[in-house]
Structures are given as structure tokens and as C-alpha cells.
Amino acid sequence: MDSDCERTNRALAGRLIEACRLAGVRLATAESCTGGLIGAALTATPGASTVYEGGVVCYQNRVKAALLGVSQGTLARVGAVSAECAREMALGARRALGADLAVAVTGIAGPGGATPGKPVGLVYVAAAWGDGRVTATENHFAGDRDAVRAQTVRRALDLALECLERK
To answer: Which of 20, 24, 48, 138 is most open to solvent, judged by the fewest CB atoms within 10 Å of its CB?
Structure first.
């Protein structure tokens, strides 16, 4: 990740931590394609422990199912790189970690892994909060693996902040 992007993500993470603190919201993450980068951005912020419950890095489908409750039906029908899987990951992280707000990401960072209809750079970002509210966005990021992962972190932090504003 380049230093400008890293600084931007760190600043966003700081804003999110502060917004969660002010709102009394506990935060959790579920990450596939980012491999823990969202959690790393959050925990680089002093005071993150006041709101961040933790995260699940779930690269394999069996881990998504076992730890987050992603249904085998979803994985078989639409796959791990889907809005449905991202939503289930966010709901599962919220439930498993006892958080008020959870963000989840799943996608294809590249350079390999693309399939017909699912190109490199396709990433789904979801959030679950409130009384069962859940949303997911489809994103198409450009660049190499590091760039896709950095943009995914940024989108996840942005989505979490958007959800807090809707609270």
C-alpha cells in the first residue's frame, strides 16, 4: 500500500473510531480479500480498544461458514464473492463478536482468481447495524493487488461511517 493511501486509510480509521466512541457503538470486522488490513488500520488508531471488538479473517469458505454462519446454500448458489455472502459475513461478525456495527469484505484482489462475470477488482463491502439493518455495495477497483486491497479498506471504513450517520 502506498504511503498516501495508507495515511488516508489511517485518517478514516481514526474518524471511525472517534465516531463510534461518541455514538457508544461497538465495532467488528470480517475480512476475506483484505486479510486483516481493516483491523490493522483500526488498531493503528490510539484508543481503538474503546470501541473495536475485533475481527475475523476468513479466507476460506469453510471458515466463513463455521465462524460467521455464512450458509452453504449461499456459497453454492452465488459464491463467496457476492453481495449475499458479504451481508451474511457482516451479520455473522456482528453476532459472533457482540458488536453494534460490523463491516465485511469479500472479493478478488488478483492477480489471479478471476472467473467469468467476476473480474479482478470486484469487491463486495457490507455493513450490519441497528435492528437488523444490513447493506452491501458492489465495487470495481482498478490496479494491482495492493491497490485493490487499499481501496477496499477505504470503502469499508467509508461504509461504516455512512451507517453511523444513518443510525
So the answer is: 24
For residue 86, the one-letter residue type is A
Domain count, the chain: 1
pTM attached to this predicted model = 0.96
Q: Where are the alpha helices (DSSP H) in 32-144?
A: 37-43, 61-68, 72-77, 83-97
Beta bridge partners of 140: 122
Residue type, 33: C
Longest Cα pair distance anywhere in the chain, in angstroms? 44
- Pinpoint the alpha helices (H) of 2-137: 3-23, 37-43, 61-68, 72-77, 83-97
Q: What is the residue range of 154's domain?
A: 3-166
Q: Are 136 and 83 in contact, with CB atoms under 8 Å apart?
A: yes
Determine the 3-state secondary structure of 144 from DSSP: coil
For residue 24 the three cell numbers come to 457508544
- pLDDT per position as a tens digit, 14-62: 999 999 999 999 999 999 999 999 999 999 999 999 999 999 999 999 9
CATH number at residue 116: 3.90.950.20
